[in-house]
Amino acid sequence: MTHTISPETTGAFARVRFIMVHPSHPGNVGAAARAIKTMGFHDLCLVAPRFPDVLDHPDALALASGATDVLASVQIVPDLAQALAPVTLAFALTARARVLGPPACDIRVAAEDSCRHIQEQSGLVAIVLGTERSGLTNEDIALCQRVCHIPANPEYSSLNVSQALQLAAWELRYALAKAAGMPLLPATDGRLDPGAELAPNEKVHALLAHWEQAITEVGFLDPGHPKRLVPRMKHLFSRIAMTHDEVDMMRGLCTAMIKTARQAKRP
Protein backbone atom coordinates (compact mmCIF):
# COMPACT_ATOMS: atom_id res chain seq x y z
CA MET A 1 0.00 0.00 0.00
CA THR A 2 1.46 3.37 -1.00
CA HIS A 3 1.09 6.58 0.98
CA THR A 4 1.50 10.16 -0.16
CA ILE A 5 3.53 12.71 1.73
CA SER A 6 1.41 14.92 3.97
CA PRO A 7 1.00 18.54 2.78
CA GLU A 8 2.19 19.56 6.24
CA THR A 9 5.73 18.67 5.24
CA THR A 10 5.85 21.58 2.78
CA GLY A 11 5.44 24.23 5.49
CA ALA A 12 6.75 24.58 9.04
CA PHE A 13 6.83 20.82 9.38
CA ALA A 14 9.42 20.66 6.62
CA ARG A 15 11.74 22.77 8.75
CA VAL A 16 12.28 20.05 11.36
CA ARG A 17 14.98 17.40 10.98
CA PHE A 18 15.38 14.29 13.09
CA ILE A 19 18.95 12.99 13.35
CA MET A 20 19.89 9.53 14.60
CA VAL A 21 23.59 9.26 15.47
CA HIS A 22 25.19 5.84 14.85
CA PRO A 23 21.94 3.81 14.93
CA SER A 24 22.74 0.14 15.38
CA HIS A 25 19.34 -1.53 15.00
CA PRO A 26 17.64 -1.29 11.58
CA GLY A 27 14.26 -1.85 13.23
CA ASN A 28 14.65 1.40 15.16
CA VAL A 29 15.33 3.27 11.92
CA GLY A 30 12.14 1.87 10.39
CA ALA A 31 10.18 2.68 13.54
CA ALA A 32 11.62 6.21 13.50
CA ALA A 33 10.43 6.72 9.92
CA ARG A 34 6.95 5.64 10.91
CA ALA A 35 7.04 7.80 14.05
CA ILE A 36 7.83 11.04 12.27
CA LYS A 37 5.42 10.39 9.39
CA THR A 38 2.50 9.91 11.78
CA MET A 39 3.29 13.36 13.15
CA GLY A 40 3.55 15.02 9.72
CA PHE A 41 7.34 15.19 9.38
CA HIS A 42 9.55 13.73 6.68
CA ASP A 43 13.19 14.69 7.24
CA LEU A 44 15.17 11.84 8.81
CA CYS A 45 18.97 11.81 8.74
CA LEU A 46 21.31 9.01 9.85
CA VAL A 47 24.88 9.56 10.97
CA ALA A 48 27.17 6.61 10.15
CA PRO A 49 24.68 3.79 10.80
CA ARG A 50 26.05 0.41 11.81
CA PHE A 51 24.66 -1.28 8.70
CA PRO A 52 25.36 0.50 5.39
CA ASP A 53 22.26 -1.15 3.86
CA VAL A 54 20.05 -0.19 6.79
CA LEU A 55 17.38 1.36 4.56
CA ASP A 56 16.86 -1.93 2.73
CA HIS A 57 17.07 -4.12 5.82
CA PRO A 58 13.98 -6.32 6.34
CA ASP A 59 13.57 -5.10 9.94
CA ALA A 60 13.63 -1.46 8.87
CA LEU A 61 11.11 -2.07 6.10
CA ALA A 62 8.82 -4.07 8.38
CA LEU A 63 8.77 -1.51 11.20
CA ALA A 64 8.40 1.43 8.83
CA SER A 65 4.92 -0.04 8.20
CA GLY A 66 3.75 2.22 5.38
CA ALA A 67 6.31 4.99 5.91
CA THR A 68 8.61 3.56 3.27
CA ASP A 69 8.55 6.91 1.42
CA VAL A 70 10.19 8.50 4.47
CA LEU A 71 12.65 5.62 4.65
CA ALA A 72 13.51 5.98 0.96
CA SER A 73 14.32 9.68 1.37
CA VAL A 74 16.55 9.26 4.44
CA GLN A 75 19.91 11.03 4.20
CA ILE A 76 22.99 9.17 5.40
CA VAL A 77 26.04 11.25 6.32
CA PRO A 78 29.43 10.34 7.84
CA ASP A 79 29.36 12.69 10.84
CA LEU A 80 27.05 14.82 12.94
CA ALA A 81 28.62 18.08 11.81
CA GLN A 82 27.50 17.37 8.26
CA ALA A 83 24.00 16.42 9.41
CA LEU A 84 23.76 19.74 11.27
CA ALA A 85 25.26 21.85 8.47
CA PRO A 86 21.98 23.51 7.37
CA VAL A 87 20.48 23.54 10.89
CA THR A 88 20.07 26.78 12.83
CA LEU A 89 18.84 25.38 16.15
CA ALA A 90 19.71 21.87 17.35
CA PHE A 91 18.45 20.09 20.46
CA ALA A 92 20.43 17.16 21.84
CA LEU A 93 17.96 14.71 23.32
CA THR A 94 19.47 12.91 26.30
CA ALA A 95 18.38 11.16 29.48
CA ARG A 96 21.47 12.08 31.50
CA ALA A 97 22.08 15.39 33.23
CA ARG A 98 25.12 17.16 31.83
CA VAL A 99 27.24 19.35 34.06
CA LEU A 100 28.97 20.97 31.11
CA GLY A 101 27.39 21.85 27.82
CA PRO A 102 24.48 23.85 26.38
CA PRO A 103 21.54 24.94 28.56
CA ALA A 104 18.91 22.27 29.22
CA CYS A 105 15.13 22.24 28.91
CA ASP A 106 12.37 19.66 28.73
CA ILE A 107 11.03 18.45 25.39
CA ARG A 108 7.85 20.55 25.60
CA VAL A 109 9.82 23.74 26.05
CA ALA A 110 12.09 22.60 23.22
CA ALA A 111 9.06 22.17 20.95
CA GLU A 112 7.71 25.62 21.83
CA ASP A 113 11.11 27.23 21.27
CA SER A 114 11.42 25.38 17.97
CA CYS A 115 8.05 26.68 16.85
CA ARG A 116 9.03 30.28 17.61
CA HIS A 117 12.39 29.82 15.89
CA ILE A 118 10.72 28.53 12.73
CA GLN A 119 8.12 31.29 12.73
CA GLU A 120 10.43 34.20 13.57
CA GLN A 121 13.71 33.13 11.97
CA SER A 122 12.55 30.71 9.25
CA GLY A 123 15.26 28.46 10.62
CA LEU A 124 15.77 24.72 10.41
CA VAL A 125 15.41 22.87 13.71
CA ALA A 126 16.96 19.50 14.53
CA ILE A 127 16.30 16.91 17.22
CA VAL A 128 19.44 14.82 17.71
CA LEU A 129 19.31 11.33 19.22
CA GLY A 130 22.24 9.11 20.11
CA THR A 131 23.00 5.43 19.88
CA GLU A 132 20.75 2.82 21.45
CA ARG A 133 23.40 1.73 23.93
CA SER A 134 25.17 4.87 25.10
CA GLY A 135 23.28 7.89 23.76
CA LEU A 136 25.11 11.03 22.67
CA THR A 137 28.72 11.79 23.47
CA ASN A 138 29.87 15.08 24.94
CA GLU A 139 31.36 15.90 21.54
CA ASP A 140 27.98 15.35 19.88
CA ILE A 141 26.22 17.54 22.42
CA ALA A 142 28.78 20.31 21.97
CA LEU A 143 27.62 20.64 18.35
CA CYS A 144 24.07 21.47 19.50
CA GLN A 145 22.69 24.74 20.86
CA ARG A 146 20.47 23.16 23.55
CA VAL A 147 20.07 19.97 25.56
CA CYS A 148 16.57 18.63 26.08
CA HIS A 149 15.11 15.89 28.26
CA ILE A 150 11.92 13.84 28.26
CA PRO A 151 10.58 13.86 31.84
CA ALA A 152 10.42 10.21 32.83
CA ASN A 153 10.58 7.89 35.82
CA PRO A 154 13.92 8.80 37.45
CA GLU A 155 14.37 5.19 38.54
CA TYR A 156 14.01 3.95 34.95
CA SER A 157 14.33 6.78 32.47
CA SER A 158 15.78 4.80 29.56
CA LEU A 159 13.59 5.01 26.46
CA ASN A 160 14.09 3.10 23.24
CA VAL A 161 15.48 5.58 20.72
CA SER A 162 12.48 5.27 18.37
CA GLN A 163 10.11 5.77 21.32
CA ALA A 164 11.99 8.89 22.36
CA LEU A 165 11.84 10.14 18.80
CA GLN A 166 8.07 9.52 18.70
CA LEU A 167 7.56 11.59 21.84
CA ALA A 168 9.70 14.41 20.48
CA ALA A 169 7.83 14.35 17.16
CA TRP A 170 4.50 14.50 18.99
CA GLU A 171 5.52 17.53 21.06
CA LEU A 172 6.76 19.32 17.94
CA ARG A 173 3.59 18.51 16.06
CA TYR A 174 1.41 19.81 18.86
CA ALA A 175 3.35 23.08 19.09
CA LEU A 176 3.38 23.67 15.33
CA ALA A 177 -0.23 22.61 14.79
CA LYS A 178 -1.51 24.76 17.62
CA ALA A 179 0.43 27.80 16.39
CA ALA A 180 -0.94 27.29 12.86
CA GLY A 181 -4.51 26.83 14.04
CA MET A 182 -4.63 23.29 12.68
CA PRO A 183 -7.29 20.91 14.06
CA LEU A 184 -6.11 18.79 16.97
CA LEU A 185 -8.99 16.31 16.77
CA PRO A 186 -10.07 14.03 13.90
CA ALA A 187 -12.56 15.66 11.54
CA THR A 188 -16.00 14.18 10.90
CA ASP A 189 -16.24 15.92 7.49
CA GLY A 190 -19.55 17.48 8.48
CA ARG A 191 -21.24 14.19 9.28
CA LEU A 192 -23.63 14.39 12.23
CA ASP A 193 -24.80 11.60 14.49
CA PRO A 194 -28.42 12.37 15.47
CA GLY A 195 -28.23 9.78 18.23
CA ALA A 196 -25.43 11.72 19.91
CA GLU A 197 -27.57 14.84 20.34
CA LEU A 198 -29.05 15.59 23.76
CA ALA A 199 -32.50 14.10 24.36
CA PRO A 200 -35.30 16.62 25.10
CA ASN A 201 -37.05 16.68 28.47
CA GLU A 202 -40.12 14.95 27.06
CA LYS A 203 -38.08 11.90 26.08
CA VAL A 204 -36.20 11.82 29.38
CA HIS A 205 -39.45 12.03 31.37
CA ALA A 206 -40.86 9.10 29.37
CA LEU A 207 -37.77 7.11 30.29
CA LEU A 208 -38.22 7.98 33.96
CA ALA A 209 -41.77 6.63 33.91
CA HIS A 210 -40.61 3.49 32.13
CA TRP A 211 -37.71 3.09 34.59
CA GLU A 212 -40.03 3.42 37.58
CA GLN A 213 -42.25 0.70 36.10
CA ALA A 214 -39.25 -1.56 35.49
CA ILE A 215 -37.75 -1.30 38.97
CA THR A 216 -41.21 -1.92 40.41
CA GLU A 217 -41.63 -5.09 38.34
CA VAL A 218 -38.29 -6.51 39.51
CA GLY A 219 -39.08 -5.69 43.13
CA PHE A 220 -36.45 -3.02 43.62
CA LEU A 221 -39.09 -0.34 44.26
CA ASP A 222 -41.95 -0.92 46.67
CA PRO A 223 -44.77 1.46 45.59
CA GLY A 224 -46.21 1.29 49.10
CA HIS A 225 -42.96 2.48 50.66
CA PRO A 226 -41.06 4.35 47.92
CA LYS A 227 -39.14 6.56 50.37
CA ARG A 228 -37.01 8.96 48.27
CA LEU A 229 -35.88 6.46 45.65
CA VAL A 230 -37.88 7.86 42.73
CA PRO A 231 -36.87 11.52 43.24
CA ARG A 232 -33.24 10.49 43.54
CA MET A 233 -33.49 8.48 40.32
CA LYS A 234 -35.03 11.50 38.59
CA HIS A 235 -32.21 13.75 39.77
CA LEU A 236 -29.67 11.21 38.53
CA PHE A 237 -31.12 10.92 35.02
CA SER A 238 -31.63 14.69 34.75
CA ARG A 239 -28.06 15.45 35.85
CA ILE A 240 -26.24 13.24 33.34
CA ALA A 241 -27.59 15.00 30.21
CA MET A 242 -28.53 11.87 28.26
CA THR A 243 -28.41 11.60 24.48
CA HIS A 244 -31.08 10.09 22.24
CA ASP A 245 -29.08 6.86 21.93
CA GLU A 246 -28.59 6.62 25.69
CA VAL A 247 -32.29 7.10 26.39
CA ASP A 248 -33.20 4.48 23.80
CA MET A 249 -30.68 2.08 25.33
CA MET A 250 -32.15 2.55 28.81
CA ARG A 251 -35.69 2.12 27.45
CA GLY A 252 -34.58 -1.20 25.95
CA LEU A 253 -33.19 -2.22 29.34
CA CYS A 254 -36.48 -1.33 31.01
CA THR A 255 -38.42 -3.43 28.51
CA ALA A 256 -36.13 -6.40 29.10
CA MET A 257 -36.43 -6.04 32.89
CA ILE A 258 -40.23 -5.96 32.76
CA LYS A 259 -40.41 -8.93 30.40
CA THR A 260 -38.03 -11.02 32.50
CA ALA A 261 -39.83 -10.18 35.75
CA ARG A 262 -43.23 -11.11 34.33
CA GLN A 263 -41.92 -14.38 32.92
CA ALA A 264 -40.50 -15.26 36.33
CA LYS A 265 -43.88 -14.68 37.99
CA ARG A 266 -45.75 -17.08 35.70
CA PRO A 267 -46.68 -20.52 37.16
TrEMBL record:
Claim: Zinc-finger is one of the keywords in the record: no
Annotated Gene Ontology cellular component terms: cytosol
Keywords from the named record: Methyltransferase, S-adenosyl-L-methionine, Transferase
Cited Gene3D superfamilies: 1.10.8.590, 3.40.1280.10
Keyword set includes S-adenosyl-L-methionine: yes
Domain tRNA/rRNA methyltransferase SpoU type: 16-169
Entries under InterPro entries matching the protein: Alpha/beta_knot_MTases, RNA_MeTrfase_TrmJ/LasT, SpoU_MeTrfase, tRNA_m1G_MTases_N
A Pfam family it matches: SpoU_methylase
One biological process term in Gene Ontology: tRNA nucleoside ribose methylation
Source species, domain of life: Bacteria
MF annotations from Gene Ontology: RNA binding; RNA methyltransferase activity
Cross-referenced CDD domains: SpoU-like_TrmJ (cd18093)
Similarity comment: family membership: Belongs to the class IV-like SAM-binding methyltransferase superfamily. RNA methyltransferase TrmH family.
Cited PANTHER family: TRNA (CYTIDINE_URIDINE-2'-O-)-METHYLTRANSFERASE TRMJ, TRNA/RRNA METHYLTRANSFERASE
Identification of the protein by name: RNA methyltransferase
Organism: Pollutimonas thiosulfatoxidans
Taxonomic lineage from the root: Bacteria, Pseudomonadati, Pseudomonadota, Betaproteobacteria, Burkholderiales
